[in-house]
Design a protein that fits this description.
Radius of gyration: 18 Å
Distance between the termini: 17 Å
Order of helices and strands: HEEHHHEHEEEEEHE
CATH topology of the largest domain: GMP Synthetase, Chain A, domain 3
Largest sheet: 5 strands, antiparallel
CATH class of the largest domain: Alpha Beta
Structural class: alpha+beta
Number of helices: 6
Length: 196
């Protein structure tokens, strides 16, 4: 299944339903192929609404009816599962890293970046095609195209030394843009699935 080919169509359909596609992935569970969608409200950055089980059910029903028409072969072989991004929210786009500046994240890369494949740092932002994080007091750049998996790490925040450079950047950004809001509330994990 070619996710890059499928994703734009799913994103358009979800937008019509009032949702954003956060991440699209495939999995194999119990011998069945699963297409897993993590979704959020289109206005989540400003409304702070969380995805509920009712939202997941509504997306699942709306999407399945559409997929039965648009991708009937896929629906014969693949189950669909819709989930909220959850507290350990996936970060799949530059906009996600920008939205969660100041939050702690974990990043795994496809190949080593400066000899490192796993990062845990505070998000400073995005510059060009790179995510900038502060890890152990050092600023590090990770190319977006090298990121295999990234997610927020809220459970590690209390035991991870607070960032100094990221905080200075955010303070400077806040002084220049009073409408900037730090998004620490990532939502509660919920999901709705359809079994084959």
């Amino acid at each position: 299944m070619d996710l890059k080919k499928l994703q734009p169509s799913i994103e358009r359909q979800l937008a019509l339903l009032g949702y954003e596609l956060v991440l699209l992935e495939t999995a194999r569970e119990g011998g069945d192929d699963i297409l897993r969608l993590y979704v959020d409200h289109l206005d989540a950055a400003t409304s702070h609404r969380r995805i509920t089980l009712d939202d997941c059910v509504a997306v699942n029903e709306g999407l399945l009816a559409w997929m039965d028409v648009e991708f009937p072969d896929l629906r014969e072989t693949t189950g669909v599962e819709v989930s909220s991004p959850g507290i350990e929210r996936p970060l799949a786009k530059a906009e996600h890293f920008l939205r969660f500046q100041g939050c702690l994240c974990r990043i795994q890369t496809k190949t080593p970046v400066n000899g490192q494949k796993r990062f845990k740092g505070w998000i400073a932002g995005v510059e060009g095609t790179e995510v900038v994080i502060e890890e152990d007091g050092a600023m590090k750049r990770v190319p977006l195209e090298e990121i295999q998996k990234a997610k927020l790490a809220p459970f590690d925040e209390a035991k991870t030394p607070k960032p100094k450079q990221v905080q200075a950047r955010l303070t400077s950004h806040l002084n220049g843009n009073p409408e900037f809001e730090d998004q620490n509330d990532a939502g509660v994990e919920t999901s709705a699935g359809e079994e084959q």
